[in-house]
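Observation: inputs received (chain + flavin-adenine dinucleotide).
Thought: call the complex predictor directly.
Action: predict_structure
Action Input:
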Amino acid sequence: MYDVLVIGAGPAGCMAAKKSADAGYDVLLVDKMDLPREKSCSGILIQKSVQMVEAEFGKIPETTFSHPQINRGIVVNTEEGKTFRFESEGYNVWRNLFDQHLALKAEEAGVELKTARAISSREKDNGVTVKFKDREEEARVVIACDGVRSTIKKNILVASNNTNPIITYQTFCRGNVDLEVDFFHAFLNPELSQYDAWFNVKDDYLIMGVGVQDPSLMKTYHSRFLSFLKTNHNAQIDSIVKEEVGIMPHITPEFQVDLGKGRVFFAGDAANLLNPLGEGISSALASGYLAAHAIKSGDNPEDKLNTYKNSMEENIAYMIRQWKFLGGISTRFRCFLD
Ligand SMILES: Cc1cc2nc3c(=O)[nH]c(=O)nc-3n(C[C@H](O)[C@H](O)[C@H](O)COP(=O)(O)OP(=O)(O)OC[C@H]3O[C@@H](n4cnc5c(N)ncnc54)[C@H](O)[C@@H]3O)c2cc1C
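Observation:
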C-alpha cells in the first residue's frame, strides 16, 4: 500500500506528489498519458506560479520556454470598449515540456511515476483502492488532480452540481497582428465569444482562441474573432497550422469548490479552482501543495481533510476577490458582484 496515490501529472499532481515525497511518504503518481503529453493552455505562468515552482522545483529550465519568454501581463478589452492593462512579469512556457519537467523533478524526489488511467476509487477501512484498466492500487490517501472532468470526483461526488465546463477552441496561426506580443490580450465583447476571446504569442505562432458554453458554436465565434482582429488590429493570417480544443472549469457566482471526501482529496481543476480569464496554474500548484501538506496533520482522514479545507480558505477567498474584480470592470461578469 502506498502512503499517497496522486492521480494526474499536471501542475497540481506534480506539486502534490513532490511535496508528499519530500515529507518522506511513499508516493505513486499516475497519468493516463505518457509524458510529455499535450495540454491545451496559453502557458502563461503568472508571478505567483513562478514563485511556487521555483521554491519547490528549482529554476525553470530554458527548454520549457516559448518565445517571448517573459510575459509582461494582461490587457483586458471590455464589452464597453474600455482597455485595462495589468502589468506583472511572468513566464511563457510550453505546457507539455513544463509539466514533464515537474513530473521528472517529482520522480527525482522519490515519486514513482506510471502511465495508467484511473477508472474509479473505493474507500476501505484503512485506505483507498483505485481501479485501473488492468490492475488496482492501494493507498492511505488519494489526491485526485485529474483535471476538469475528474473521473475520480465524478465517481465519489455523484451528485456534484458543477456546471458543464467551458470549451475552448484556439488556432495556431502564422502571420501578423498589431498587438503587443509579450502581453496576453483578452476580449470580452459578447459578439466574439460566450466567455472570453484571447490572443497571445508562442514562438512564431499567433494564437487566437475563444471560450464557449455551446461547443457547436466555437468555430462561428472563432471566425468572428478573426474578422474582428483583421478589422481592428490589422491581423494578417497566412496559414492556420494547428487547431486545439480544450476545457476549463466554468466558475459561477456560487463558487462551488470541491476539496474532497474521506481519504480522497481533490486539487487543481478537479477541485473546480480557476481564476478569471482562464488562469488556473497558480491555484493548481497551491492546492496540490496544501493537499500534500495536510496529509501530515492529524491522526484520522477527517482531520487531514479539514486541515486541507481550512488551509485553502485564503486561496479561495483570493479567487473570489479576483472574479468580483472582473465583475467590476465587465458587464458580462457582473453577476459575480451580487
Ligand atoms: C485554452 C486554455 C488556456 C489556458 N491558459 C492558461 C494560462 O495561460 N495560465 C494558467 O495559469 N492557466 C491556464 N489555463 C488553465 C490551466 O491549464 C489549468 O488550470 C491547469 O492545467 C490545471 O492544472 P491541473 O494539474 O489541475 O490539471 P491538468 O493540467 O489538466 O492535469 C490533469 C492531468 O490528469 C490526467 N488525467 C486525467 N484523467 C485521468 C485519469 N482518469 N487517470 C489518470 N490521469 C488522468 C491528464 O492526462 C492530465 O495530465 C488554460 C486552460 C485552457 C483550457
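Thought: report the result.
Final Answer: The two ends are 47 Å apart (CA to CA). The chain has two domains: 2-70+93-163+251-337, 166-248.
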